[in-house]
Amino acid sequence: MTHLSVVGCGNMGGALLQGLARSGDHTLVGCDIDADARAAVADYCETTDDLAVAAEADYVVLAVKPDTVSDILPALDLEGDQTLISIAAGVSIDYLDDLTDAKIVRLMPNLNAETRNMAAAVTGAVDDTVRALLDEVGEYAEIEESQMDIATAVNGSGPAFVFYLIGAMADAGVDSGLDEKQAETLAAQTFKGAAETVLQSEKSIDELIDAVCSPGGTTIEGMELLWDSDVEADVGAAVHAAEDRSREMAAEFADE
């Protein structure tokens, strides 16, 4: 049984607590000074506003805004046999290392952790316990720290981009007569099923597209329009805009 605390019970910290609580195999603590944030996770874990209580855990997730890390992490006063898992965007391992004696893991998760469908990028002192925790809440990739900015964009910001695309498909359904709930269900489930197919199939993305497109059929008509459009470039530009902002944030901390 892993003793894990989450400091910062906002959207992402709360999603991790909710996802990990489903197994019932861990001692979980949520720490936040905001009473509403604590109340939001009270069904999944013990809650506290005391950093000293959170610091008793073997694994401490730092899920706070980057500009508060320099105040909160020294106050936790973690020791060398503990592991800090930081999800503070743009805050490097070197920066964190100056503030704590703990082993350091950098994690970029996403909100899908609450449904155990998270995509995460991780680097640093990743041990088998960290891997097991991540396995419980989704899929993950171990990467180099130099790749964290693009990972932040692809899987960290990515859910918002996917939500946007689901909304666009659902709106098209509504325009042609489906009610809003029907259209949203069909669009969202289609994305869910397509994503699972990508993960489980040995075929490439292009091969999977070809498998759906019958000559002279409906899908090829839509794909021809997409291939002739700027959609691929626009989606790529959105990802790179998020990547650039992550890089800017990292540079701000490096200059401190």
TrEMBL record:
Intracellular or extracellular location(s): Cytoplasm
Alphabetical UniProt keywords: Amino-acid biosynthesis, Cytoplasm, NADP, Oxidoreductase, Proline biosynthesis
Origin: domain of life: Archaea
Pathway info: Amino-acid biosynthesis; L-proline biosynthesis; L-proline from L-glutamate 5-semialdehyde: step 1/1
E.C. code: 1.5.1.2
Ranges for domain Pyrroline-5-carboxylate reductase dimerisation: 145-249
Binding site for NADP(+): 63-66
UniProt xrefs under InterPro entries: 6-PGluconate_DH-like_C_sf, NAD(P)-bd_dom_sf, P5C_Rdtase_cat_N, P5CR_dimer, Pyrroline-COOH_reductase
BP GO annotations: L-proline biosynthetic process
A family per Pfam: F420_oxidored
Any one cellular-component term (Gene Ontology): cytoplasm
Chief localization: cytoplasm
Domain called Pyrroline-5-carboxylate reductase catalytic N-terminal: residue spans: 5-90
Catalysed reactions listed for this entry: L-proline + NADP(+) = (S)-1-pyrroline-5-carboxylate + NADPH + 2 H(+); L-proline + NAD(+) = (S)-1-pyrroline-5-carboxylate + NADH + 2 H(+)
A GO term for molecular function: pyrroline-5-carboxylate reductase activity
Family, per entry: Belongs to the pyrroline-5-carboxylate reductase family.
Reported function: Catalyzes the reduction of 1-pyrroline-5-carboxylate (PCA) to L-proline.
Name this protein carries in UniProt: Pyrroline-5-carboxylate reductase
Native organism: Halonotius terrestris
Lineage, highest ranks first: Archaea, Methanobacteriati, Methanobacteriota, Stenosarchaea group, Halobacteria
Underlying gene: proC
